[in-house]
Amino acid sequence: MVGNDEGKAKLLLWLRKWKPGGKAALLVGPPGTGKTTTVHLVAEKTGMQLIELNASDSRTKDKLSKKIGEAIASTSLFGGSSLIFLDEVDGLAGRADYGAIDFIKEAVKKSESPVVMAANDPDSDGVRKLGSTATRIDFRKPEAHEVAKRLEKVAEQERIAPGKEEIRKMAEAANGDLRAAINFLQSGIPAKKDEELSAAESVNSFFDATDGKAALQALRAYPGQPRDKIREIFTAVARSRVHEERKALALDVLSRADVVMGRIMRGKDWRLLRYIDPMLASELREALGDGGPRYTLDSVSWPLQLRIWNDSRKLRDIAASAGRRMGISQKGFLVEDMPYLLLLCGGRAFREELVRSLSLEDNYALFLVKESGRTARR
Fold first, then answer.
1. What mean pLDDT do residues 172-196 have?
2. What is the per-residue pLDDT across 300-356, written as a single tens digit (0 to 9) for each?
3. Are residues 148 and 133 in the same domain?
4. I need a surface site. Which of 95, 280, 308, 314 has the fewest CB within 10 A?
5. Which domain holds residue 168?
6. Is there a contact between 173 and 191 (Cβ–Cβ < 8 Å)?
7. Are residues 243 and 312 in the same domain?
């Protein structure tokens, strides 16, 4: 297990303090950051019996009740020393969520054993809805120097001798994916790091690409998660003025890419990710023809964007604090929840409770009074 020392320490601290009826732990981070590995190591270190379930395989209340209910009921067989691990909870919410989230919330409260959950997408509805039931622990990609240090150890054990500079390049090219870095080391092929762009630069470079090679390079330079990349491209295409027939073809390609992405995440077969970018670079580019879509900042209304820019620090501070309480990202709160929060702050009781619960300073309280008045007038 490489990196995320803070996350590991928080999980152990949560486990030591946990009591029946207490909150679950929710590990949130990109695939390959070691969430599942950490849970296994914690169970091994503490001598607990690990009961592992995958939420995305049981998306309804009835299916979950059979698996989780049995797990909770059987913990007494192990003398209360079980650790229940529920993976892929971000795959629960949505149209197929028939009471599954509410069932998990109640199951956590009734469980006589600690429950750990894991999710890949910090902005998913599943993560947000479970926020009040869980202590969120964020996992990040390991730094290049951490990956390089592990590669040096692997090379020593395998009795191979790549140079330090070569190992450094492999670690940087892997972009936090230790498995990819070890593949580089095993293959002996010099690693080549794609140029890293911002999300907007990557997506718009894809739309502007003059050939398949340039389109593929732009997609590989996207700095976020694959699911986010598909979502950003979908938003741009759906809003574009591309001819309806071409738009329909493009959306069909994106829907199939989303299906593949779902299967990858459910089966944890991350090797299949290599096929997503070529699929988009060839089929989606052909469907769009000469392009037309453009990436925009967010799906935020123009008046709210102006307020975000003019009062960015206060809005972002509030979004960060409220987002942590809800188990969602700062950006997700700004885009989806801030307009409603400002509207609700028109009520004095709600506003005062918000200020108290988030421990906001007086100048933030005055700012909320001003902003809630603007929102109400609109």
1. 67
2. 444 544 444 455 567 878 888 887 777 677 776 776 788 888 888 888 889 888 888
3. no
4. 95
5. 144-187
6. yes
7. no
In-domain check, residue 339: yes
Is 71 inside a domain boundary?
Answer: yes
- How far, in Å, are 109, 178, 306 from residue 30 at the CA level? 27, 13, 31
Shared domain check, 132 and 148: no
Cα dist from 374 to 303, 311, 339, 352, 365, whole Å: 10, 13, 11, 18, 15
4, HSE (Cβ side, Cα atoms, 13 Å)? 27
* 258 within 8 A of 235, measured Cβ to Cβ: no
Asked if the structure places residue 258 within a domain, the reply is: yes
- Residue 365 in tokens: 């309280």
Cα angle: 188, vertex 218, 221; to 5 degrees:
55
Determine the Cα–Cα distance for residues 73 and 328; give it in Å rounded to an integer. 31
Q: Which structure tokens are listed for 210? A: 């003059």
Region 101-124: mean pLDDT is 80
Give the Cα separation of 88 and 119 in Å (integer). 5
pLDDT at residue 11, as a whole number: 92
What three-state secondary structure class fits 360? coil
| Residues 97 and 56: beta-carbon distance below 8 Å | no
- Cβ atoms of 32 and 143 within 8 Å: the answer is no
Q: Do residues 323 and 333 make contact, with C-beta atoms less than 8 angstroms apart? A: yes
Q: How far apart are CA 32 and CA 293, in angstroms?
A: 32
DSSP sequence for 129-171? HTGGGEEEEE--PPPHHHHHHHHHHHHHHHT----HHHHHHHH
Are 154 and 221 found together in one domain? Answer: no
Residue with tokens 């762009």: 197
- Determine, yes or no, domain membership for 314: yes
Structure tokens at 184: 């580089």
- The 3-state secondary structure of 40-84 reads HHHHHHHCCEEEEEEHHHCCEHHHHHHHHHHHHHCHHHHCCCEEE
Query: How many CB atoms neighbour CB 287 within 10 A?
Result: 20
How many other β-carbons are positioned within 10 Å of the β-carbon of residue 38? 21
CATH number of domain containing 23? 3.40.50.300
Burial class of residue 88 (count of CB atoms within 10 Å of its CB; 0-12, 13-18, 19+): buried
**18: phi then psi, degrees, rounded to nearest 5:** -65, 140
Total of domains in the chain: 4
